[in-house]
Amino acid sequence: MKKLSPYQLLPGMKLACDVYTHGDHLLLPEGYVLDEYAISKLQESVGSVKIEQPATRSEQIQNSPEFVNFSKAFVANVSAFKENLNVAVTNCDSLDTDGLLNSTLSMMDNARGALHIFDMLHNMRHVDDLTFAHSLNVALICNVLAEWQGMSKEDIETATLCGLLHDIGKLVLPEEIINKKEKLSYEEMQIYKKHPYEGFKILKSKGVDSRIANAALMHHERCDGKGYPVGYTADKIDEFAKLVSIANDYDTTASHKSDAKTPCPFSVIQMLEKEGLRKYDSFFVMTFLENIINTFISNTVQLSDGRTGEVILVDKNHPSRPLIKCLDGSFIDLRREPLSLIIEKIL
């Protein structure tokens, strides 16, 4: 519900409560859908009216049967994934990669159609698991990105497993470091940076595809040589690791929780726009940006100055600066606004 001046009203808005004249006569009933004539009568008769705010895209998604089913499957998969990996790592059992892949792909099948996988993931941030939910997110993003790249069915499946198992090395590191939400100390960071190599060792010992093991080893390497644990440059980084690095950084940044702020994927888009061609494989990152921006169309967003509106157009050359339509019908083209005005959250 929102209170507006009659001069801010637009046709199609719906009244949230009865509107009475100053003489206490009913002018328009609750639920009335405004047209030009009704708006003119309100402008003549009252100082303000309350209107219903339409459900945001996020609310529409969360109330959809598709999302309800996806959410249940996601939580179940995270639980099963956690159990399977812990057993495999601690008991020296083999990894059932076929079972892990099939359960992940079944989620993809259920998420296709009317709702895109990114719509689902943007609304799954209530599952606060720093390793297992994150790994499942990365697997789903890798699957989509590999498909956008036009990879073969076999390579898409490999990319999905690379995403699913890229952080397995964290399971042998101290939990207090892996689960710490505050900034790590220098000493803690040196321990944390061992997880890619630990993951590589685990996966090699299980006889897993070398491309999946390399993705675990190299997913924090960067094309400019400033990554870790080795500092490989682009020519030495496995192609699947390059793909995982984008998916990993996107999910890590988009799901980061600090100061009780809602995670905002646009901050990741801005980072990729600014640093992507230096840090990541140019072919992969450009494909990601050109496709991901379309998933934000119709989302309701809040700007850093408090204004809200709907994303209606995204320029592929400036993906983090879309055109936004506000509730009062005005438009904000972020390309023409100061850089200090940013999208702060998706509502």
Can you give the helix content as a percent range?
A: 40-55%
Main sheet summary: 5 strands, antiparallel
N→C terminal distance: 15 Å
Spatially, the strands of the biggest sheet line up as 8-7-6-5-9
Which geometry do the CA atoms define? elongated
Write the CATH fold name of the largest domain.
Hypothetical protein af1432
Name its key features.
3 domains; Molybdopterin biosynthesis moea protein, domain 2; 48% helix; single chain; Hypothetical protein af1432; 347 residues; 9 strands
What secondary-structure arrangement, pairings included, does this model have?
Elements (H helix, E strand, L loop, with lengths): L1 E3 L14 E2 L5 E3 L7 H10 L3 E3 L5 H6 L2 H26 L6 H15 L5 H6 L9 H17 L4 H13 L9 H4 L7 H7 L2 H11 L4 H9 L20 H16 L10 H15 L2 H11 L7 E4 L4 E6 L9 E4 L4 E3 L9 E4 L1
Antiparallel strand pairs: 1-4, 2-3, 5-6, 5-9, 6-7, 7-8
General description of the model:
- With 347 residues, the protein is α+β, with helices and mostly antiparallel strands.
- The chain folds into 3 domains: 2-51, Molybdopterin biosynthesis moea protein, domain 2; 57-263, Hypothetical protein af1432 (Orthogonal Bundle); 300-346.
- Helix content is 48%, strand content 9%.
- It contains 14 helices and 9 strands.
- The chain has helices at residues 36-45, 57-62, 65-90, 97-111, 117-122, 132-148, 153-165, 175-178, 186-192, 195-205, 210-218, 239-254, 265-279, 282-292; strands at 2-4, 19-20, 26-28, 49-51, 300-303, 308-313, 323-326, 331-333, 343-346.
- It has a 5-stranded antiparallel sheet with strand order 8-7-6-5-9. It has a two-stranded antiparallel sheet with strand order 1-4. A two-stranded antiparallel sheet has the order 2-3.
- The longest helix is centred in the first third of the chain and has 26 residues, at 65-90.
- The radius of gyration is 24 Å and the shape is elongated.
- The model is unreliable at 257-261 (pLDDT under 50).
